[in-house]
C-alpha cells in the first residue's frame, strides 16, 4: 500500500490488514559522473514498493534529503543537518503512530555514518516515548553488500560503484550516463578537511565498470528478501 497514492478511506481499510510501515530515506547526492543524484532514494523506495507487492504493509513517501558530509562539496549534493534529519524522522514516525501504525522500519538508501547515526538516535528516542512501538533502522546498502557478497566482484565497493551501478542499470537504465570510472577516496587518516572533493574528485568508491543489469536484478531480489525477514522479526517481537 503506497501511502501517497491512497485515499483516507483506503488508508483506514489498510489498518485492518497491517500496522507496519516502511519509511524510505535517501539523499540528493552526487553519485559519480554516471548516476543520478537521486540514486539512494530510488533504491530504498524501490525495494520498499517491491515488498509491498508481496504482503500487506504501508510504504511512506520517501525522504529525498540526508546528511552528506563526504560529498558536500561535490556538484549537486544537498545536505541537511543531523538535527534536521533526526527531527524529521521523529515527526514522521510520531504522526504515523498517531494514525494507528505500530511497526516502523526506517530504510535508508544513503549509508553515511553520521546520517545513519541520526536515524538510530531518532529510533532510540521514539522507543522511550511510545511503549508499544517497535522500530528498526536499516541501511539498504549494507543489506545489498551483505546479501550480494557472492555476486559482487569489487573489494570494498561502496558508493556509485559496482553495486549501485548494477542496481540502477536494472531499474533505471535510462538514468545511467556512461560507465563511470573506478576510484577509491584518499582522505587523510583522522584529519578533518574542508574541501573533501580534493581527496575524492570523481565521487566513486569502487568499480562501476564491473556492473551489470543482471547483477542488479539479483541484488535487488536479495535485498527485498532480507527486508521481509526483518519485517517478520519486528512484527513477531510486538506480538
Largest sheet: 4 strands, parallel
| Mean pLDDT across residues | 95
Poorly predicted runs of 5 or more residues? none
Order of strands side by side in the largest beta sheet? Answer: 2-1-3-4
Total number of helices: 7
Which structural class best describes the helix and strand composition? alpha/beta
The arrangement of helices and strands along the chain is HEHEHEHEHHH
What is the CA-based Rg, rounded? 18 Å
The helix fraction, in percent, is 40-55%
Concise structural overview:
The protein is built from 7 helices and 4 strands; from the N terminus they run H-E-H-E-H-E-H-E-H-H-H. With 239 residues, it is of the alpha/beta class. A 4-stranded parallel sheet has the order 2-1-3-4, sandwiched between helices.
Explain what you see.
- The protein has seven helices and four strands.
- It is of the alpha/beta class and 239 residues long.
- It has a four-stranded parallel beta sheet, sandwiched between helices.
- Helix 6 packs across helix 7 (213-237).
- The longest helix has 25 residues, at 213-237.
Q: Could you list some keywords that capture this structure?
A:
239 residues; 7 helices; alpha/beta
How do the strands and helices of this protein lay out in sequence?
Elements: H1 8-14, E1 20-25, H2 39-54, E2 58-59, H3 82-98, E3 103-108, H4 113-129, E4 134-139, H5 140-147, H6 162-171, H7 213-237
Parallel strand pairs: 1-2, 1-3, 3-4
Amino acid at each position: 500500500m503506497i501511502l501517497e497514492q491512497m485515499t483516507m478511506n483506503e488508508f483506514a481499510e489498510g489498518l485492518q490488514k497491517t500496522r507496519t510501515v516502511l519509511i524510505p530515506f535517501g539523499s540528493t547526492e552526487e553519485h559519480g559522473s554516471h548516476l543520478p543524484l537521486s540514486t539512494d532514494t530510488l533504491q530504498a523506495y524501490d525495494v520498499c514498493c517491491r515488498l509491498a507487492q508481496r504482503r500487506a504493509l504501508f510504504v511512506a513517501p520517501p525522504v529525498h534529503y540526508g546528511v552528506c558530509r563526504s560529498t558536500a562539496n561535490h556538484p549537486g549534493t544537498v545536505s541537511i543537518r543531523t538535527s534536521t534529519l533526526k527531527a524529521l524522522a521523529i515527526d514522521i514516525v510520531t504522526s504515523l503512530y498517531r494514525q494507528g501504525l505500530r511497526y516502523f522500519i526506517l530504510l535508508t538508501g544513503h549509508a553515511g555514518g553520521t546520517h545513519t547515526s541520526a536515524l538510530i538516535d531518532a529510533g532510540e528516542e521514539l522507543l522511550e516515548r511510545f511503549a508499544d512501538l517497535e522500530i528498526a533502522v536499516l541501511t539498504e546498502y549494507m543489506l545489498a553488500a551483505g546479501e550480494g557478497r557472492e555476486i559482487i566482484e569489487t573489494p570494498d565497493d561502496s558508493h556509485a560503484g559496482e553495486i549501485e551501478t548494477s542496481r540502477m542499470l536494472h531499474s533505471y537504465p535510462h538514468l545511467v550516463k556512461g560507465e563511470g570510472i573506478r576510484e577509491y577516496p584518499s582522505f587523510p587518516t583522522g584529519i578533518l578537511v574542508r574541501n573533501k572533493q580534493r581527496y575524492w574528485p570523481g565521487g566513486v568508491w569502487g568499480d562501476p565498470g564491473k556492473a551489470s543489469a543482471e547483477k542488479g536484478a539479483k541484488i535487488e531480489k536479495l535485498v527485498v528478501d532480507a527486508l521481509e525477514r526483518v519485517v517478520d522479526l519486528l512484527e513477531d517481537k510486538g506480538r
